[in-house]
Inverse folding.
């Protein structure tokens, strides 16, 4: 479908270039490098005959055309294309030798009438016999010139054909601009905003090229300067657009640096034009555009990431753009035999570029919209999962609160009953230890739930840590197995939470060490990673020959290899580390010489 559309464009462009009945006998040119020759002096020079369109590229010279026209009994239109030529002076001989009548037109001349509504400059002539005219052309833009001599009716038909080719193209470019603008308003994406800017500049360039821009401007306006700025501005904005478009694909750094340099040159070109050096600015702009073509291909083929809508789509688009630019730029540099098709090709290139990048951005927008919908669905599923998880946590918390209440009460009753009964000492110790283990498991589960739900708050107070250690040791399972080496140390922390930590560490050391082994508890000062503080170490020998995994020992529900047959929930050490982190400290574990050492560190109070 797209290939058929392009064929239609080519056929329409060729039809626009089809010649009507021409009264042009011969065209020849002379390059006046000095720019000071008069028409009489030029007549004596040697002219070079050419057919079709003359393409001399950028030059400081004045180009003189010798135009021989057939005789006609009707007025004729001598038309000169393209519209962006600066100053044209047509010399017509009179009955008085050496005296010439002149007509002036051009991009810098304030003209009236139909000339403001078409792509060519028009001179009305009346050659009653075969006549030779001389046309002086001075322009800062590329010297690409085509002359035709037609009757009014043939000119009118040709002009209508040209407009039937150009106006739909302008309409299509406006349609793409409207789509891009609406997409930008909805999604506020910077890349689409740059594409809108590119389309605006391309439309302005096409209007200036076809002579339609003059319709919207006063006669006193410097149309030549505006056209030059539009041309170079279009190049700069296009490069900036591709700079942003290519970024997600991660092309070669050197390719990006070359593109950045070309963008810098485009800024220099606009500056030259604004400061009175239009020819130099335009010529540099053409060379810049020439280097932009291979840079565009380099960017497309050096990409490392397959971003939306894909590297293949990007490379196809860049190949088509490079081809369109190459076709247009050759006559601007004076290369090859130019024909009228190249003027229409300038408009065609703008439309084709707009279609290619419009389709590319449409695909990109569609893919991103699909991705956004998929992400939204994933987000909704995640949110639903979080709600379900929170519901389960609420149910778990309610169950744990209920279980704690329902079990704590009977345990307390059993303990009170046990105090009133007479039992042998060994049986009493066993019963009390079992009740204590059950109570500790319940407390640990409740604490774990409170920590997970962030319902536990820290209340700091100043107290003697040595006294707390002694109190906790006296209340442990077998205080006689513990060797204390503690001196008075004042700390500022949560007394209740810290007592839970120390109690768990000492009880664990007693429970998981051999029956005859001693547990050593030491208290002192130590420097942490960033500050000084207080250090508490609990050291004991471990059961069996296989040491516990010091990296996994603080994980939830993890128990050591020698814990089989011993009571426990796998929550104690996990709770200890979580509580110490809440207190701003650290808890570490080391295995040294068949001993396991837990080190609790708390920072000094500020």
């Amino acid at each position: 479908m797209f290939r058929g559309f392009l064929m239609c464009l080519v056929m329409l462009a060729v039809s626009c270039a089809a010649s009507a009945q021409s009264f042009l006998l011969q065209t020849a040119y002379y390059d006046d490098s000095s720019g000071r020759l008069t028409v009489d002096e030029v007549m004596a020079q040697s002219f070079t005959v050419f057919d079709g369109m003359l393409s001399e590229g950028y030059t400081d010279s004045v180009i003189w055309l010798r135009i021989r026209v057939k005789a006609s009994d009707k007025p004729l239109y001598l038309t000169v294309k393209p519209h962006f030529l600066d100053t044209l002076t047509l010399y017509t001989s009179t009955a008085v030798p050496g005296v010439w009548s002149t007509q002036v037109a051009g991009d810098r001349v304030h003209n009236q009438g139909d000339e403001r509504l078409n792509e060519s400059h028009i001179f009305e002539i009346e050659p009653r016999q075969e006549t030779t005219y001389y046309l002086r052309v001075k322009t800062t833009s590329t010297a690409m010139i085509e002359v035709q001599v037609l009757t009014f009716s043939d000119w009118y038909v040709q002009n209508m054909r040209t407009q039937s080719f150009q106006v739909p193209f302008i309409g299509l470019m406006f349609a793409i601009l409207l789509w891009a603008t609406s997409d930008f308003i909805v999604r506020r994406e910077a890349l689409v905003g740059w594409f809108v800017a590119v389309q605006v500049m391309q439309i302005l360039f096409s209007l200036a090229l076809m002579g339609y821009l003059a319709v919207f401007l006063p006669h006193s306006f410097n149309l030549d300067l505006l056209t030059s700025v539009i041309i170079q501005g279009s190049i700069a904005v296009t490069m900036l657009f591709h700079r942003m478009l290519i970024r997600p694909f991660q092309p070669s750094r050197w390719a990006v640096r070359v593109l950045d340099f070309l963008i810098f040159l485009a800024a220099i070109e606009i500056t030259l034009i604004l400061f009175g050096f239009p020819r130099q600015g335009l010529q540099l702009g053409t060379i810049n555009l020439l280097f932009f073509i291979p840079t565009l291909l380099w960017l497309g083929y050096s990409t490392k990431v397959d971003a939306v809508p894909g590297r293949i789509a990007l490379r196809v688009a860049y190949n088509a753009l490079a081809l369109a630019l190459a076709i247009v730029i050759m006559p601007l540099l004076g290369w090859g035999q130019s024909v009228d098709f190249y003027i229409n090709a300038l408009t065609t290139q703008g439309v084709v570029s707009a279609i290619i990048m419009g389709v590319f951005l449409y695909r990109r927008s569609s893919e991103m919209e699909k991705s956004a919908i998929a992400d939204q669905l994933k987000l909704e599923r995640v949110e639903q999962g979080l709600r379900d998880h929170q519901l389960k946590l609420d149910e778990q918390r309610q169950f744990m609160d209920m279980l704690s209440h329902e079990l704590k009460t009977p345990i307390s009753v059993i303990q009170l009953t046990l105090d009133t009964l007479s039992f042998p000492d060994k049986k009493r110790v066993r019963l009390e230890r079992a009740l204590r283990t059950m109570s500790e498991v319940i407390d640990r589960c409740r604490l774990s739930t409170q920590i997970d739900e962030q319902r536990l708050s820290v209340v700091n107070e100043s107290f003697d840590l040595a006294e707390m250690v002694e109190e906790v040791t006296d209340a442990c399972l077998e205080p006689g197995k513990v060797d204390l080496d503690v001196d008075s140390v004042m700390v500022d922390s949560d007394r209740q939470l810290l007592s839970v930590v120390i109690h768990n560490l000492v009880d664990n050391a007693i429970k998981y060490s051999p029956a005859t082994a001693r547990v050593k508890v030491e208290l002192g000062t130590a420097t942490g990673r960033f500050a000084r503080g207080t250090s508490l170490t609990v050291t004991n020998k471990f059961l069996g020959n296989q040491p516990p995994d010091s990296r996994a020992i603080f994980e939830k529900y993890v128990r050591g290899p020698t814990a089989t047959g011993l009571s426990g929930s796998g929550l104690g050490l996990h709770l200890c580390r979580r509580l110490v982190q809440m207190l701003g400290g650290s808890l570490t574990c080391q295995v040294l010489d068949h001993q396991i050492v837990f080190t609790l560190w708390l920072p000094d109070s500020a």
In short: The mean pLDDT is 81. The radius of gyration is 45 Å. Residues 473 and 479 are 6 Å apart (CA to CA). The longest strand covers residues 532-541.
